[in-house]
Amino acid sequence: MEQHVDRLERERIAQLGAACVCSNLRRTTRAVTNYYDSLLKRVSDLRVSQAILLVVLYLTGPQTINELAEKLDLDRTTLGRNLRPLEQQGLLTLAPGSDQRTRIVTLTAKGGEVILRVLPAWEEAQTHMVASLGQEQLAGFFTQLSALAVSAREA
What we know:
By secondary structure, this protein is mainly α. It has one domain (about 1-155): Arc Repressor Mutant, subunit A. It is about 75% helix and about 10% strand. The longest helix is centred in the last third of the chain and has 25 residues, at about 110-135. It is globular, with a radius of gyration of 20 Å. α2 (about 20-40) packs across α6 (about 110-135) and α3 (about 50-60) crosses α6.
């Protein structure tokens, strides 16, 4: 009997492992992130996750850490750790806000220049990914990803 139960558990675990939404998304995002990073590396030490952060600042202007964390759907502490290297490189500044708890994040001129420098490589990566998926399927893919995110937040 014990071998039978063990076999059933192993089958359940194997099925869950192969079909796990989280595991499959993480594996895919690592591969896609590595691809984008490899193209950006040709022109900058900036990773795509850092470029996205700078782009938000480029488009919206100065933000508090809380506002930026909300826009990027990141934990405030994680965002703080991600901001420090960019500040050290002179790509953004962190300054006191209206009170002791608030910090304002501002893109520097150098940060704006870096965004413009990585733009062609980023566009190349994006073109490749869109072509791989198919333009027609892209909107549906984004809708599905958004639905998964909402479902995860609501659970």
